[in-house]
Structures are given as C-alpha cells and as structure tokens.
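Supplementary Note 3. Input sequence used for the single-chain structure prediction.
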Amino acid sequence: MASGLHMPTWSLILWLLFACCCRAFYIPGYSIKSYRDDDPIPLLVNKVFSDHTQLQYAYYDLPFVCPPTGKTHGGSPFGSGQSISLNLGEVLRGDRIMTSDFELVMGKDVECQALCTQEVDRKGVKRGHQLIKDAYVAEWIVDNLPGATSFVTVDRSRKYYAAGFKLGSLDFPAGSRKPRYLIYNHFTLVIRWRKAPGKAGEQGRKVIVGFEVYPKSISANNREESGCPKEVFDEHEPLELYIAPNTSKLAEKYPESSYLPEEDDDADDGATLKIPYTYSVYFREDDKIEWSNRWDLYFSNQSEGSMTHWLAILNSLIISGVLGVTVLVIWGRTVQGDIKGRGDGAMEDGKGRPRKSRSGARSPKKSTEKTSGGLLDQSTDVERDAELSSDDEESAEEITGWKLLHGDVFRVPAYSGLLAPLVGSGMQLLFMATGLLILSCLGVLNPSFRGGFVSVGMGLFVFAGLFSGYFSGRLYKTFGGTNWRKNTLITAVLFPGLMFCLVFILNLFVWAQASSTAIPFGTLVGLVALWLLIQVPLVYVGSWFGYVRAVPWEHPTKTNAIPRQIPPQPWYLRSFHGTLLTGLIPFAVLFIELLFVFKNLWQDKSGYYYVFGFLSVVSTILIVTVSEVTIIATYSQLCAENYHWWWQSFFVGGSSAIWVFGYCIWFYIFKLHVSGFVSSLLFFSYSFLACAVYGLLTGTVGFLTAYAFVRRIYSAIKVD
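The predicted structure, written as discrete structure tokens, is reproduced below.
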C-alpha cells in the first residue's frame, strides 16, 4: 500500500512547490509600447471609488470636475470624452474609461498648464462634500498604468504605490469642530521612463515604468492670466469647497425661525463656486525598474504578508496531514483488514457464512483416549467449545457495520433529480476555478489585462457547460432517470438563473444611485444571450453525451427490493450540528488566506494577482482536506448502518461555506466599515453568492470523493 501512495504523494509535493513559486507576471514582450521623444501620450480617466462604500462613479459624471471639450489632442482621431472599448470584465467591475483633455508629450516637462475653470452650484458642492468625506479616489490611466499615490516604508528603504489619488481632504481648523472640505485642483504628474529593451531602445525609444499623481489644493486667488497660480510649488491657501449661505433667501424661507442654518443645499439661488484646474508634467528616467516588473510597486506593500501566507500554508498542511493519516488508518487497517479477514466468506441477505475453524488440525471428533475420571475428555470439550464460540463472535463482527449495507448502499437517494443538476453545476464551477488559478499562476491573467479575470472566468464558465451537462446527464442515468431533457433544462437554468436574478435585482438598487457599478442594459441583454444561446446548447450537448452515448456508472452490489431499517443514529450523524462541525475543518485550512482575499476584493480594490501563487496552494490543500473529511464522515455514517450518504456527503463537502459566510459577517462588522444601505446590501448579497458558489463547488468535490470511496470499498468484497 505504501508503494501505491508513493508517486501521487510526490506529485502533490511537486505541484505545491510549483504553485508556491508562481505569481502573476507579464508574458514578456507581448504588449510593450514604446515612445519616441515628442510622441503624444494619451491620458485616460476612468472612475472614482472608495474603501468605505461599494458604489463607484464615472469620473466625468462628477459635477465639479472639468468636463470633456471634445477636442482632439496629439494627433488622436478621437476627441476628449470618447469612450474606450471595454471588455466584459471591465464593464462588470464598473470601469468607464474615456479620453481626456490632458496633453502629455514624451520627454517634455510642463511647469503649469491650465485645464479649465469649472463652476459648481450648491448641489455639486454637497456632492463633493460626500465624496471627500467617504475618501473617494480617482483613477487615471497612462500606458495602461493607473495613476498612483507614492508612499515610502517606515525605514525609508523602498517605496510602494497605491492605485488612485484622493479627490480632496478634510481640514479641521484650530478651535473648530466643523471640518473644511478642500478640493484638489492642481495635479503634478510624474511619468517615469527607461530605455526600451532590445532594438527599440537602440533606436532611442522609451517605455513608461511609472505614473505618479501628486494632487494639491490651491485657492483661486493670486493667479496669472493663463489661470495658473504664481509660484506653483510655493505654499498656497487651499481652495475650500464651500459656498457662503444666502442669508436673505434663508430668512424668507424660515420667516418665523430664530435660527438660520448655515447651509441650505436645496436652495436654488444661482450661487456658484469657480474651481480652476491646472496640472504640471515631469518626465524622470528610472533605470531601477524593469518594464516587465513595473506593477511590482503596486503590490510591494501587500507582499509584506508573505510570512503570513507561508504560515497559512503550514497550517493547512498540518490539518490535511492529520486527516490524511486518519484516512490511511481507515483504509489500511479497517477496510482492508475487514476485507482480508473475511477469507472465503460471503454475505448474502445480511447473513455471514462462518469461516473454517482456526484450529485447523484440531478435529471436533470425540477423543478415544482413556483417562481416569474423564478429566482429559472434559477439558478437551471445554477448549473446543471456547474455540467455536470465538469463531462465532468473529464471524458476527464480520457482518456488522458498513458490510451489512451492501444491498442498500447504492439505493437511489431522495430528490435525485435535484442532486444530479447540482453536481453538474459544481463540476462546471470546478473547471472554471481550476482554469482561472492555472492561468493566473502562469501569468496569462495579469494586472495589464484589465478586467481579464472576470472576462476569462465568464468564458470558462460558459464553455464548462459541456462538463456540467455530461456529469449531470450521466449521474441522472445512473439514478435510473428517464426524462433526460428535463434534467438538462434544470441543469442549464437552475444555478445560472438564480445567479442572474440576484444580480438583476441588485442592479436595480445600483441603478437608482447612478453608479457606474450598475450593469448597463445592453450588457444585461448580452449576458442573457450568452447564457441562453451558448451555454444552454453546450449543456444540452454534454447531457446528450452523458445520458445517450455514455453508459451509467456500474455499482458493485445489487440493491435489495425492500429497504433496510436504519438503527438510531448518534447525534453527530443525524443533526445539523454534526455537518456544521465537519465544515469547520476545511474552514480552518482557508480562514487565514480569506483575510487577504477579502481585503483586496472589498478594501484595496487595487488588484489581487499577487496572492494567486499562495491561493493556488491553499486551494489545492483545501480540495484534499474536503475529500479527506468527506471520506471520514461517510465511513462513520456507513459504520452506523446509515446508507443515506448521497446528500450527506454533498452537505459535508459544502458545509464550510456556512463558516465562510459567518466570516463575511465578522469582516463587515470589524474590518470593512462601509456606510449606506446599498453598499451593505451589495456586500452581503455578493458574499452570499460567493459562498453559494464555494459551497456548490466543495459539495461536488465531497460527493464525488464519497462516491468513489463507497464504490471502491464495496467492489473489494464478495457478495453472492
């Protein structure tokens, strides 16, 4: 048995070492863009987002920023405000990328350039106050790099980037409890470049390796005719986003009130605030950063948690190793021992045929020896009776427990018409998740492929409809189902339909907030077409192969006509608490890594590609752990003479999703600190959807593992 486990063990170790060394990177040379001196560089504006809310807004939808003029710049055929073509992933993640009026020329520094002077009314000022209070940051893009805020570590040994820059800041004057809202209206753009690799560099071409934005608030006073402030880099009085109240209008509105509010945002008195916008551009050479590693600065601060990742992997390996030893004990000593100990016996209708006596040469015939008083005859009879009694007890032990269920263990479960589509959908998700992790580790999915993770994931999910239909159809045929077209329809509609309905309902709330997070109507129609016109036919084809062309899985034992009565079960096998406790073990493997995943998804929003190497390892260990837990739980259930293991194995495999959702609640209360009903609704709804996907995937893994285990142990026994 040890030799049989030698190669798979080494294969698993090699796979873990490979995944540990993987991280998201560029495939060198496939998308390098270089510039000559005096070549125009387009600057694109995208959206504004915040760590305190899940609502995003298109940059040009803000009332206090410079609107696009529509003019062309740098020889571009598109005027400012032109939307850039987006892939499906970019649209779903809320990107709204447009061209801007910023003029950037490679190698040409600009000390100050006026952009526009924007007038804002009271409603626009109120909107700006809310966005600044929620710490919204703007995302601009140059050469596919987001504009970054630069930071330096505490020991000043290195710097790192945070994607985006703030729209403004709060200032608390001395002796005042009321903050001032300062708007950033001057932007210093620092573009770092180096010589292009290869022949392009020899021809004097350059590549961009960094894009930094340093915003500043400068009052509208003391400016030149061009609109630029005098001495841009000197200390200036900041520009407060504030319009003085109209006391006469307030007095008319509140004639009998002794207290007049300082602000009345609903007052439409035509008062406005003029905000002059300017920018500076500086190009700086930086030979320390390779083009292929230019995204490292965005993740260098996050990579400080590498030690925590390794601790998470060590924790996972310990848990999985302990469970693995338990499974080996079950298989090596209990199952194999029971089978080998049977000798040439067989089971029939729950009754065992006794084996030959271990005494061998000792015959039960009567002794012919003559002794005084018959003492020798008496002792021989007692010894023989004891041996026969011992053999009867051993024979009785052989036919107890899981071996008694050979005629019922493969009985078709209740609601088998629902179990088959769920397993099919789980296989679809398993294929998608495996493909995403592999592509991310290989670098195909990287930060430069904006929206690629969602786009490729959607494509893999649709294509995996073949696997969904095949496994669902073949399992349905194994269960003895006859209406395979109905099963196909349920498989193709059940999970995708519920997911689409939830997303559509949530989209109505986001639409009401005029957020770019809302999915456009045309995209919704496209998703429905992708589902009904591509995935459903693929599920049908897979189901046809699984049901019509493939043979059902054969079971090693026949099912009795009359179901066996199940004896009373221990509490951990017949209650929800037992299933919940089994889910705690896979959750213990995952929970350390969950903190990094949640932080990058819900807080940083700056990318999560750097964790894929570690996440691949933990995911692999998680699958192994779910399989081990399911084997142990299934064997315990069979030993208790309970043959209802089909659904139980599915629930045991997916039960850790309950703990993950509980972790979501803890993260929301203690870590996230989001504000607003819609943001909270989005968080819990998408968390529930993610946990449902996770539970369906791990539940399928648990079911297939238990199915293979049960088939294997019952195929090793001889049944008449």
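The mean pLDDT is 83. The two ends are 27 Å apart (CA to CA).
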